[in-house]
Design a protein that fits this description.
Length: about 240
Amino acid sequence: MSIKKHIPNTITCCNLISGCIATYYAFQNCFELALLFIVIGAVFDFFDGMVARLLHVSSPIGKELDSLADDITFGFAPSAIIFSYLCTFHIHLPFVPFLAFVMAAFSALRLAKFNLDERQALGFIGLPTPANALFWGSLIVGLNDLMASADSSLFTLHSSLPYLILAGMFISCYLLIAEIPMFALKFKTWGWKGNEIKYIFILSCIPLLLLLGVSGFAAIIAWYVILSIATNKQI
């Protein structure tokens, strides 16, 4: 028992370490590697709760540690990606890139709210932090690749892009804490009835990834939010 009870927390710590590594690569402008370690952190985040339930060793400490790790991997790391990307632009107001870290604060607020909210057993209320992190990581990777190969015709977009990114970031901050029901990919049964939205979402992800590559993950998260708002089922 003494060994088993430490296994989920060890997996959670691997999530936290992945977030730290993602943050390091974000500050080095290695956005692809930063995104990779966010994804690795998400894998650890998926398994820590599952292992805790399988081993029957869930604990209040594990719950708090999980939130701390999630804010590093899915709050601070994507904020660092946005910050570093904004620093690549010639912005007249030097404080503007630092606004990216507002998202880390909203992510922490969302995680604290999630821990206290008993309505989120089968779905989410507000945008989950892993989804938000995946959106911003994949979007910045796609934009960075696009601008690296851009010609002069995209100069106008390039000059306004930092402010568009910040506007989008503040929208995502709102979505993190908004009272908007969003479905989770949890299945009580595998039949079509009752799972229509989930299956439609999963099937529509395939062409988005094939057409857009890494940036397809950003499109998938945006589609997830739109579909959740459109269906707007109470949890």
